[in-house]
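Risk register update: the risk that structure generation would not scale has been downgraded. Supporting records follow, first protein first.
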Amino acid sequence: MNNSTQASRLDLFAPLSGVVVAIESVPDPVFAQKMVGDGISVDPISNLLLAPVAGKVTQLHSSRHAITITTPAGVEVLIHIGLDTVMMRGEGFTAKVAEGADVKVGQPLIEFDADLVARKALSLLTQIVITTGDKVVKYIPTTKKMVVAGQDILLSLDLAGATLVGNASSAAPQADAAIQSAAVIVPNPTGLHARPAAVLANMAKTFKSELKLVRAGDEANAKSVVSIMGLEVQHGDSIFVKAIGPDAGQAAKALAELIASGSGEDCGGVLPAAAAKHIPKPQTRPALKSNDPNVLMGVSASPGLAVGHIFQVKQEVIDVHETGDTPDLEKRRLDVALKEAYQQLEALKGEIADPAKAEIFTAHQELLSDPDLLDLATAAISQGKSAGFAWRAAFTSYADKLAKLKNEILAGRANDIRDIGRRVLRLIAGIKEAAFEVPNDAILIAEDLTPSDTASLDRNKVLGFCTIGGGATSHVAILARSLNIPAICGIEDAALQLANGTPVILEGSKGCLRLNPSPEEVSSIRERQLKLAKRQAEELAAAFEPATTTDGICVEVVANIGGLEEALQSVKLGGEGVGLLRSEFLYLERTEAPSEAEQDKIYSDIAKSLGKDRTFVVRTLDVGGDKPLPYLPMPAEENPFLGVRGVRLCLAEPELLHTQIRAILRSAEHAKLAIMFPMITSLEEVRTVKRIVAEEKAALGITAAVQIGIMVEVPATAVMAEIFAREVDFFSIGTNDLTQYTLAMDRGHPKLAKEADAMHPGVLRLIANTVKGAHTHGKWVGVCGGIASDPSAVPLLIGMGVDELSVSVPAIPAVKALVRTLSKADCQKLAAEVLQMGTVAEVRTRLSQQLAD
């Protein structure tokens, strides 16, 4: 096809079949106001994007939703599929060409799943935009209402006189000194994609100076949307503005401030440019300090007592050459190492007894094929770097970005990236993984341990460990708890200076490492360990006896679980059911929502493991805000704990909620099913979820009784407990969140977490009010928060009238044994006394006395 009817005319053919839409009508101000450039839009009925002009692919977005072709005359044509499709992160898009390829008119560029995009994006409208508007004298859109891809001319351009391949700001700047802004941290959740890039470019064009954005040594023309997008600036990247020209100082300052503010996007709060070094990293969060020189403090990662001697673990240094052989040879070396690493992880999974914990290494296997990680490595190999050098740079960069995230769970995954990264790097370098050669009775100290390190520990020699990095939610902490290894994370840096052989006592539950204990202290600890072991054996032997007080009141003791393995374990330990199934384990750390069939099987398997006589309480999906789902795009929130989470998110995504409800209901025939909804704050929410359950239950023809309950974790709900009790079958008090919301203290805050105590008199009064309200209408109340497993709190909860204690699986025998030693009447007297107290200290002191008695 002839691509030019005159020397100054350029015809753009329809890239998709569909309805022609004026660019001004697009429901996105960035395109409608022509901030990216002038052009036209198509509402598509086809799903294979074709090249509208001949030229070179100068930019292919990593999410594959946008592509730019530059013609020989230097005209840049941006084709943007859909609106807000950047949030899909490439899901449903398949590129048919590579960046740098020469293409002809009508050549396939991108294929997309139209149904998926229609469901997940704001719109399918596809924009064809000329980003180099200075080269165009006149835009002549087609008069047709419908166009056929590759056949009909969609837009004709009358071009300015002779042009060279370049950009809109190619005029030579005046010979002024270069000005550079301070570093700016990009706050945009999805980086500088089309919308913020357009806002930046439009402001840049208001200045006479030449303007560049600089990231890690790479530069982009700040007046070109395509150039900015090609820089691939991601959330958390550090960039700065370089300006040369008569208004350089003013321009650099204005653009830096615009970037820091989010470039027109609401980023949930901005971070000053110079504050980059102050971003808190959860892995290196300052630990609590002790005033005792012989005590180092950290965060409890895994409970337990250990008496042993310090052994410092140093990370091996793996040297690699920067320059490689031919790119093909280096790429083969990387591929071989990736395949061997996969096999090693498969073997490691087989060594973990708990299948749920073994899934940590399944996630590691997924990382081996992560496209972003591999793209970084292969790009460097193509530039002449060795496989080892390219891979190390890629995984280090990837991990550093994760480590900067405020979400502690996600930031903790940086350690997983480094773990798998070093595994592959050792294989490339031909270095055998060094096993820990540790002495007997060792307490390991390390900057950080990896999940692989932790799973491989010799339990005959290693009694516990402390790490400077990490936290209670890291995979290392999870593995430590599953392996019953006492552990502390986030301990003071001074631990790294301790000499090997230093005698210590590690108290995992307290997050405390005591140095140089006296012989008397060691003897006391040994004696405590023996007594503890004896008591645990007695508790386990009586685990299947009911938890009945000395005056005949039965308290149900059930389990908090996160999957089938824990359900099976709870039954073995005498659990009388499940008081909380955290169903979000099915939804997190995956790229798409679990299917109804997948959920159906898991819920039914858990119900079958419990049997028809045990309670099975399933909490519906509790994510959002601080726990986002990658396949459910949500805007960043300044206060995620006060945002769209729990039932609010589920009601906003009805398909997600209805699917889960149907899958849960099918387990009703196997156990005593109860469905519990989180973050309830209004009667309207309760009535809506009850209606949904009733509709789905009727549609499925299920006749078994199913109780409907709510979590009490917001003060408003606790205050209105008597009113809510008229509408639901039961309450379950989530004391962790209830404490957080009552005291306005983030339970994960490094300075305030210790003060966010559920024993605060205000929290206790809300618990008592909840129980009173429920019992007024004959409804039962459980507690599934942390204090249900706290021995000092159990008498108080029983005294306030709590009917059910939902505890961590290992705590079941101990809590049941404790209940059997208590009198309900004495517990009621204790509760009456404690509820009159005004401070946490008074409450804690009184409960400690009770426990000692």
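Supporting record for the second protein:
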Amino acid sequence: MNKKSKLIIGCILFGFGANASNQLPKYLLRAKAPITEVPFTNVHLNDVFWSPRIEINRTVSIPSAFRECEKNGRFDNFAIAAGLKKGEHRGDFSFDDTDPYKVIEGASYSLAVHYDKKLDHYLDSVISIIAAAQESDGYLTTCVTNKCYRLSGWWGTHKWEKINSHELYNSGHMIESAIAHYKATGKRTFLNVAIKNANLICKTFGPKEGQIHRPSGHPIVEMALCKLYKVTGTRQYLDMAKYFVEETGRGTDGHALSEYSQDHKPILQQDEIVGHAVRAGYLFSGVADVASLTNDTAYFHALERIWENMAGKKLYITGGIGSRAEGEGFGPNYELNNMTAYCETCASIANVYWNYRMFLATGDSKYVDIYERALYNGVLSGVSLSGDKFFYDNPLESMGQHERQKWFGCACCPGNVTRFMASVPQYQYASQGRDIFVNLYIQGKGNVNGTEMLQQTDYPWNGNVKITVNPKNNAKFNIRLRIPSWAKSRPVATNLYSFVDSAKQYTLKVNGKEIKAYITDGYAVVNKKWKKGDVIELSLPMNVRRVKANDNVEDDRGKYALERGPIVYCLEGKDQKDSAVFNKVITTKTEIDANYDSVKLNGIVELSGKAEEIEQDGTVENTTFHAIPYSTWNNRGADQMEVWIPYSPIYAHVKPQPTIASKAKTLFYQSAIQKDAPETAAVMGEAWGVNDQWEPKRSSDISKPYHYWWLKNGTPESIAYEFDKPYTVSNVEVYWLDFDHYDGNFRTPESWKLYYQDSEGNWKEVEHPSSYGIDKDKYNSVDFTPVTTTGLKIIAQLRKGASGGIIEWKVNN
């Protein structure tokens, strides 16, 4: 049976298994109902892994996020819009309204499974302020209502003016939050606000004359409108979602097409995932919803092509997506740099949403494999074990420059974490007719179509899973048990990653008797007449496995990642004898032990074994290593960290001896408008990367930190060193940045000059400089008359229409 023929949205033909000849018995082929979600309220976890995290989300993360919303004026903005309070609109972004929406959504999920009278009343109070802020026609974006022209760069001068205004993004998050509150409490107060806003959207946008003809700009409203359709049954919401999907990349009203806004090309013409990673994940989730609800196979096949590119060429081993900080999005195929990996927390969450919907449309476990990978690694790393600090980006290497924060100016990630963590139980099961999919192995109780599923397991620390099946009445149906990708030959169902060592065989028993189940789409299918008390026992071997990346992934060459079960591991400086990780080598012959520590990092399985340590003189010493789950790093203070570990000394990095430059503080300045008066430029903050002593391979090598003048084009820009004491210097070497990006090119500068700081603090150009080189792919060395100074400054004139930057800047005596 051709696999493509099975991918029919809405009514999918499924076989139950494969016999020795890989053909399905004919009696097992029959039309099936759509795959449906099991509400998270029907699943109650009581395990040692997720339950504590969900409880911390309820008791710490959600209250903390609400306090930050209060402190940072998020609710004040609604009160000002409602006329309940006077004052200036606060915040720096047009989408700040979504912060309280997301936290309300998470709080609603929590309320549904753990009623809290105080929280219930709190939600009523803040929802009443939001409702009061809504304009009479249903419009709701506070910075526009409050006429905050300080933010007009985002939204313009009137409603719906700009594609990147985030007005529809605000609406999407508000609608999703209102639906969650309605489902949790039965109250329609917030839902009525959402319906009124959605009706305005349907009136304002569309194909008719007088309507606005363009997509949403920052996708999420597509998912939200599909949810509202399913709650209300009102067809115009689904039609509106479909319109936004179909309008993507068409430029009907003449607006400029943009990869950043996921508006560069019609969906049906796409085969590569590009642009802003969160927008991509949200958009393709919405496309999957529309395709499923309208039985549109063409859109689904387009999603398959895009998914193959993402999973086969642009997916991090942690389940994260989006390699570049510039534009918060994707680089070219196989660009999976580790230290500069962006992997926004919101993007990992979006990756779960998208893959979950792909599973619902197909019943294929390869999508669950990726959302499990993201769940246990890329999403969880975004929040501290304490629940009150967050990562915006999630690198796979760090020199210690990364630290979680309690909040951000652009605070999309903390709120997103609060709503997502509360909804984790909904990803465990699914049903198709009477059949049950077991997608995640988490101890607890689930009710699927009247059948109680009792799981007992210490997963992810242990691979033994016991499931007691208690149907309401004895009945024959299938239970599909996912055999995870980590128990096979490849971590994901593409050629991007592979295991170096072979998989050990899992075992499956029913009522104590070992069976050989049919395998279809990654599931072991058990078909029998189930009665109360039947027991399934699945044993998944959890040996430590080494992962090798496709050789096209340059930054992972000569290195392995370590996995055990669904958990990706890392080395952190806190656990190594010399507090360093980049000088460690774990050979292919090293035996690796795995031991559970109930105290360390709230309880983890830690890996340990022998390692080689490369000294500064090149000698190799024997040592030991300890590895912790990647999701738990940076919970004991900032330190070095790496996921991909060298298996040969030639790939290890030993930090050189300190230099004048490496000890310096790096500062960046306002645009130096007056070229002949560089002292007029004010210090804007500290820069990073140009003195980290990692040697670049080429001017397009962005695998390690570098400094770039983001959103600056054709202007004079500056960067300076502030030395720890006066030095006499006579030479600098500058390695210029030069690479292409979908949202702006970075080029070597048109010209540049070097200045030193005299004893009175004035900046003067160095005397008798040799040629100020602007060549790429090399150090540009400049000799000059020796000066004794406490600082040097570069002023670079950027090329017309281009930005620029510096990868490394050395200073010599």
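The mean pLDDT is 93. On this basis the risk owner (M.S.) recommends closing the item.
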